[in-house]
Amino acid sequence: MRAVSAVRYASCVIRLVLFDIDGTLIYTDRAGVKAFSQTFAAEFNLPNGTERMKFGGRTDTSLVREFFSLHQIEPSPENFRRFFERYVFVLEHLLAHTTTGGVFPGVSTFIADARSLPRPPAIGLLTGNVRLGAEIKLRHFDLWERFETGAFGDDHEDRNQIAAIAHERGSRLLKEKLRGEQILVIGDTPRDIECARAIGAKMLAVATGGATFEQLKAHQPDWLVENLGKVAAKQVCS
User: How far is CA 182 from CA 9, 93, 152, 176, 225, in A?
Assistant: First the structure.
């Protein structure tokens, strides 16, 4: 493990761990981006609709809204429904045919080790994926059942608000009002660091996806590692 700043709450036991998905838990050969592009082409006759869009750390709903704005399409509930009904079908099809996706090193071991701690934290998700999209991705890699709670891109368009929802749901699950420093967010982009700070949580950044090690270091997460195989759960959760 390589720390980039002092541990702010060394004596506080983590009660809730929230994982980002894409670039943190799994890689999918950009199946999500491809599914967006194919859905825009099929439903709205715009085959190059994603060329000007940046996906890292974004929410699915905000991305669709941006697409509608770029192409002068009414952001109506009906158009959102059209998009997501086709998108999840395309995503599942693409994942079924990808041969280059997988789970990042250390993910399964980190989760198992966290569960074996004397006072294990709840394990949840904090993601911009809509819930069904998240489930499709994680079921494909046999990870979905490992998560007890979470918040998703169809809960809110703003990633920081999704973090607040995940915080509240984790508190309900554990039947205790969690303080921010009792939560650990794990993610791979500066946006993940931002939403951890929005709820006062600790942040473990992993350089496996949307940003380089040095780019993440500039945002001063509590911990920064190349991948989850480089850190033990007890080092950051207790």
Answer: 9, 38, 20, 11, 20
Would the pLDDT of 95 be above 50? yes
**What are the sequence ranges of the domains in the chain?**
16-28+102-237, 31-97
- Strand-pair partners of 206: 225
Q: Is 123 helix (H, G, I), strand (E, B) or coil?
A: strand
Q: Which of 238, 26, 20 is nearest to 114 (CA)?
A: 238
Confidence (pTM): 0.92
DSSP secondary structure letters along 105-130: TTHHHHHHHHHTSSSPPEEEEE-SS-
Task: Give the three-class secondary structure for 216.
Answer: helix
Which CATH architecture is the domain 16-28+102-237 placed in? 3-Layer(aba) Sandwich (3.40)
Question: What pLDDT is recorded for position 51?
Answer: 73
User: Which two three-digit tokens encode residue 148?
Assistant: 């007890």
